[in-house]
Amino acid sequence: MNKLKINRLKDSSFKIWGIISTLIGLILLVIFIGDILDDGLKRLNWDFITSLPSRKPERAGIYTALMGTLWILIMTAIIAFPIGIAAGIYLEEYGNKKSFLSRLLEINISNLAGVPSIIYGLLGLEVFVRMLKMGPSLLAGSLTLALLILPIIVVATRESLKAVPDSIREASFGMGATKWQTIWMNLLPASMGGVLTGVILALSRAVGETAPLIVIGALAYVPFAPSGPMDEFSVLPMQIFNWVSRPQHGFVINSAAAIIVLLTITIIMNGIAVYLRNRWQRKIKW
Amino acid sequence: MTEILEKEKGLLNIEKRMIEDNEPKNKLSAIDVSSYYGDFQALKNITMDIRTNHITALIGPSGCGKSTFLRIFNRMNDYIDGFRVEGKILYDNKNLYTGNLAVEQLRKDIGMVFQKPNPFPKTVFENVAFGLRIQGIKDKTFIEERVVSSLKQAVLWDEVKDNLHKSALSLSGGQQQRVCLARTMAVEPSVILMDEPTSALDPISTAKIEELLKELKKNYTIVIVTHNMQQAGRISDYTSFFYMGELIEYGKTHNIFTKPKEIRTENYITGRFG
Q1: Is A177 on the interface with B (CB under 8 A)?
Q2: CATH class of B51-76+99-269
């Protein structure tokens, strides 16, 4: 065989390998989702969503867990959004990028994004639940999850600010704008697409987190939906976890149905993120 | 008796002629200015006056310091690490490099148009209104009037009047550059600094902007950096030639282009180097 044929062969075999690799992930996902849908769809109805938990699988619903998840979602967003964006702005626009301190900060923030979530749970337990005496409340849970997703938001903010060309900063300063006006009126609007995408993806990760909430003492069984930030709570993943570990087959069906709800929430959130990103990309072409 | 009257008339005429001959006063002055990027000296002892309501062109090969010199006047070099400036820069006889100068105010008086059109990713209207908004002006009719008059001054009004609320980024390069010009004029500066404003534009857009500049010098003092010698020749009243951070020659454009005193100037404008 000559060199040319060997190269062709390499080319086509890599292509096949690539196709197989892509399919492995996809097929497994399809099997998983198919299995879940097969189990869960017949259980999924309005009653299931609006019922309180129960010892009998056919009467049990996800209302409290779903409400807990929504509370957590909103409170985490309210806490993490301003802090994460402010930190991102500081590091990108104000921090002296060459200084030792800001390089150290940068490395640490990237590392924080990789810290196992259970560690955040331990931190939350010690600081929020015990030291600040919040108890296993929604507030403690949201603060813990906010810490967990802060690094993601900081990095997303920095990346989107970096994507705004310097010519825009020059134009703004050249008009006599202060740094704050430049950031607030030009840089943030121009990078909001990327920032929001990052925030939503981070939140959709937070929605699926279980470990840190178990550690801070969120309950698997809460008789009523929370009505304020200091209430005890449960969330969907915990409800699922609890049901899966029960012996009755009815609860396994329930957990499949709850997984469908959880998946729907995350898919909707990711969809919004993708939509926002595309919209902004279309609107702003440098 | 008549003799004396004749004499006085003569004297008056002389006086009048002197006023006419008098060079227009200087808007900007650089006195013995040197500047550095770290250890690198970008400008070497430059002394030069810029005349009010005239177009002054700064020409010279890349890296000769002309853009650095231009940006000294609105302190846009302040953001560069390790940049420093020595000597005196005067604007209406006030020193620009003093600690208590309000840079924001200075940049409203001395506007700037950049090489690459850089409109904000906002509507045409908001682009032009930006300078007024950051000054805290809220009066809607005032802002509207100013936006319209600035766009008219930039000879862009007829092209965008139906698209004022469309993104400025959807316009052509030449139109974008005129949006930038309108944006600068909306705050009524007295000086407009231009850093190769037409180098990213096609010949037709360039011609439009050049035409516009000739009109604008009635109200503004314009300093323009250009790589295009013909452009300097066409539009400017005064031309200065920079080379390796030095001001080689400065004078009336006509003189510089027809009878330069320095051999380096002649070589450059005839295209023998640069």
Answers
A1: yes
A2: alpha beta
